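tool_log.txt
---
The assistant was asked to compare two proteins side by side. It first ran the structure predictor on the initial sequence, then on the second. Raw inputs and outputs are pasted verbatim so the downstream comparison step can read them without reformatting.
(1)
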Amino acid sequence: MTATRRTLAAPDLAPLTRAALGPTRTLTAVTRLRGGTRKGVYRLTLDDGSTAVAYVWSADEDYWDAGPADPRDPFSHASGLDLFTAAHARLTAAGVRTPRLLHADPTHTHLPADAAIVEDLSGGTLEDLLARDPQAAPGALARMRVLLDTLHACTGPRLGKVAVVDNGGSSHGVSCEQRVLDGALRDLNRLVAREPRVAAAHTPLEETLRSLAAEVRPRTGRPTLIHGELGGDHVLLTADGDLALIDIEGLLYFDVEYEHVFLRRRFGPHYAALRAPGLDEHRLSLYRLAMHLSLVAGPLRLLDVGDFHDPDFLRGIAEHSLEQALIIAGCAS
């Protein structure tokens, strides 16, 4: 655990800003944007009133304190400049909007960490728009459906993180469904010691996971390009009403059903406008239970670290997800 997490200020970010935007530009203000758990996100205000956004990947900015991760695991800790630049390039080639990359520094020349500067899309998130303006929701969701169609029309030669696969590498896992099952069983076994209700329901939860996995038939064809954690808070609005994806480091080739399980959870009543035809119901069922277990294990792990800025938010996610997992396994009280 990081004992004291240091927030960067203007003197820290001024050299990176000059490298990205020019030596004559003066950084006048820095605001740390809340919400991320894996990297620091800072809005940079310049002397002419323009803004940009800095991403910083460092131990001080990563609440998971995860340490080195093996990118060959499709669901390993998705943090780092290499993952970001590979995902940015793939999305740009696919025609999916994401904030324009202005500068990347993998050499730690200007900060003792990987860093990048991107354009500032300050129109807010799609999540906020759906909450505050019901009349705008249908149009925004229609644009989101187009974005999803564009993203999911892209495929890769094999499953795995874009940074691995697009560089010719191979990932761990013989199939998407097996990787999800293996991860869910690991989450379940870790939760037994952490959560008494999981310990009491361990057997039916494991049996349900294995039963759902047994119903999944092998799939031929290429895996789909997916974001992996696509909620409305990971979609920004541009000045012209376009939508742009952020938090893209986890971009991977995988089953499209994995994306839709997350979309359904995060978009709730709005999901009907985003659902795609032809989804495999057996994969959806397995991935839904696995997602709920992950959303218990992940927040509880962050709570164990102890310094996340909104612990009540994490407890709420874990509690809701545990309730859903127990319902699926027939263990709800």
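(2)
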Amino acid sequence: MKLRLADLAGPAGMALFILAVQILSLLLVAPLTSYDLKAFENPQSVWNPVFYIVLIIVFSAVLLVIIKFNLRWIIQLFMIFAVFSTLIYVLFGVATLLLPGLTWEVVLAASVLISILLTALMVVYPEWYIVDSVGILVAAGASALFGISLSVIPTIILLVLLAVYDFIAVYKTKHMIKLAEGVMDLKLPILFVLPRKLDYSYVRSKTQKLEPGKEREAYFMGLGDAVMPTVLAVSASAFLTAPKILGFTNVPAIGVIIGTLLSYAVLMYFVMKGKPQAGLPFLCTGAIVGFLAGCAAIGFNPFF
């Protein structure tokens, strides 16, 4: 298939979404850490990623049952609550970062109010630019929360397990494709949407099967493809004693960003040929390699 220059606009736009998630999540490390907000009590435990993978498998099985019995409203309610909760975290962190003089009570109240408004807007009018805007905030919040909750070694274990799981779920059992098709019509910020044409409307679009070689009205990418590699960048920034650069991160974290974007380019090379690909085997590998390269560049041993 011959590619046109215009065909690269979509993948390039998705790369910018990933970069926006990475930068925002790294900026959130300091404010969230200062309030000791984390998902796991012991960030050093290697059992944390195992627990997370088991949770994903169980959750995926439940979603498949819900989709089979056409009870998508249950998924919708759960996702709306999850989005609302994550928005509070990320907006709390942003407000703390931008307005350090405010008390935490005022910041929390403002974060809850804005989260309610954004969630309501997303439900009432889920156009693609609204879904993407909320999606960036949600992805950054989730990345930051898990990144400050898992130290580097458990995070690397998690990324390896997720890459293997995604490979099996897409190429072997294929249940990940069924999940994607089952939730796309919910119009929730669980994926990024980038239209091929300016007159595209996500609100009016119909669910499309993810068939190889079939041209769709828009590009789609799951939020997980942006979140999971970014968790390693956040973990590196939060837990490593490597010298800070740019005032808020370090070279290993920058290495994760570069590795993720390079592996994303490789991923898009295959996707543009018309074949759906499992994203995490590419992106998690790129993130880990970039992390190790960043550590090597400054002579830092992250494992001792």
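---
observation on (2): The CA atoms of residues 202 and 225 lie 20 Å apart. The chain has a mean pLDDT of 87.
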